[in-house]
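Design request, tokens follow.
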């Protein structure tokens, strides 16, 4: 019997397993997942923290689903080594699990501050969300004037933390490495629109700051900036991006750069080895370039496409990447390829006090767009990007 192993039980790995099973009732499918949980929605975690969604609803697969679909989920198990030559993986339980086909959907690892002070929060897993909820409950028992938070980061996670602190009426400051939100992607105007949005909500932003020094005995009390200023903070939300752990791929000689390299079929150069989701740096035929995206729809649709391919229905993956979020009520949408270094020209579609639209062109074709404040053109631009080659 053909043996399919999937490393990572997030949305990409789970969607792939489901697609394989739809096409092949016989093949053996095993998902090896480091976390203790069945597949859940990371997108819903901020909503769960804000109590807009109950914990159960965050889980998009039940343990029974795996049994019904004859998919073995090995949760709480980490793959430590991939042996390509002998076609097996070694797990944290020191087991060798053989495979005929291997799918890598390991996502990204969060960049940690490496500080164990209580009060430091990350938000990647459901356990992180539980932790953040308990920190918020503690802070809310304090007198209003003693409640305070800080955020370190200038991207998606910083927005999520800002929205969460606002929801719970915890005053906060944002500390950033760069000179603005998404400083490597956005124009000065777009960064200014977002900074104004934060200021209008009474929060301060500190730009060009290294990691702040954390102050407190066992519990966080304040963070210290490079000029020595101390900002009181009972919770520090850290969102400084995802990293790919390349070690395991390098040791296995699976080509990886910013992610595991694949073609448009999500096949690596090694026969029978595939990658999908946040970890895959794939050939995007929409924008004609190798890219790595980290968003839910991309991961889910890649999982589906690679599942079909592994089951013998070879299917190229093609989708206009799309990530929507908001900052304190201001909508933000990123479409397609928005890498400034890979762009010939960036045109300004809209630049007002509270809105911005940037259009990214390569070889005269629209390959990406950023919409802030006014996202009404989202569908039209998505279509344009999809057609542009
Ligand atoms: C709080 C939060 C909010 C988000 N909000 C949005 C949003 O609004 N919109 C949007 O588009 N995207 C959002 N995202 C991003 C989106 O959730 C991810 O792009 C998507 O979940 C990636 O799925 P994946 O399956 O590729 O990887 P992951 O979900 O990261 O899953 C990878 C899994 O592999 C496991 N793993 C890693 N290494 C090993 C190993 N060696 N052995 C065994 N298991 C391993 C990990 O434990 C993990 O569970 C959000 C993410 C977070 C964290």
């Amino acid at each position: 019997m053909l043996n399919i192993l999937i490393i990572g039980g997030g949305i990409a790995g789970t969607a792939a397993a489901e697609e394989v099973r739809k096409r092949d009732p016989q093949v053996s499918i095993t998902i090896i997942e480091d976390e203790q949980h069945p597949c859940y929605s990371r997108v819903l975690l901020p909503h769960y923290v804000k109590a807009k969604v109950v914990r159960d609803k965050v889980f998009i697969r039940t343990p029974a689903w795996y049994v019904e679909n004859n998919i073995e989920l090995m949760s709480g198990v980490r793959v430590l080594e991939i042996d390509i030559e002998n076609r097996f993986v070694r797990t944290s339980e020191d087991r060798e699990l053989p495979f005929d086909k291997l799918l890598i959907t390991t996502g990204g690892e969060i960049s940690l501050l490496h500080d164990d002070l209580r009060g430091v929060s990350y938000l990647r897993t459901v356990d992180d969300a539980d932790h953040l909820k308990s920190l918020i409950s503690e802070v809310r028992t304090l007198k209003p004037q003693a409640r305070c938070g800080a955020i370190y980061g200038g991207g998606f996670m910083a927005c999520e933390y800002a929205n969460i602190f606002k929801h719970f009426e915890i005053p906060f400051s944002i500390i950033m490495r760069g000179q603005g939100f998404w400083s490597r992607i956005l124009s000065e105007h777009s960064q200014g629109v977002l900074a104004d949005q934060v200021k209008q909500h009474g929060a301060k932003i500190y730009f060009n700051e290294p990691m702040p020094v954390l102050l407190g005995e066992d519990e966080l009390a304040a963070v210290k900036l490079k000029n020595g200023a101390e900002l009181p903070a009972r919770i520090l939300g850290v969102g400084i991006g995802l990293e790919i752990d390349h070690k395991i791929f390098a040791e296995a000689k699976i080509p990886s750069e910013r992610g595991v390299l694949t073609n448009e079929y999500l096949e690596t150069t090694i026969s029978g080895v595939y990658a999908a989701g946040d970890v895959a740096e794939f050939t995007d035929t929409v924008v004609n370039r190798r890219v790595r995206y980290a968003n839910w729809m991309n991961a889910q649709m890649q999982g589906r496409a690679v599942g079909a391919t592994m089951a013998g229905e070879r299917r190229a993956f093609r989708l206009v990447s799309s990530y929507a979020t908001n900052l304190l009520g201001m909508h933000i949408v990123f479409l397609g390829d928005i890498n400034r270094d890979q762009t010939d020209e960036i045109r300004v579609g809209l630049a007002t006090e509270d809105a911005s639209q940037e259009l990214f062109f390569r070889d005269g074709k629209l390959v990406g767009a950023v919409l802030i404040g006014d996202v009404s053109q989202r569908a039209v631009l998505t279509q344009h990007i999809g057609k542009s080659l």
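Comment from the thread starter after seeing the answer: thanks! The mean pLDDT is 96.
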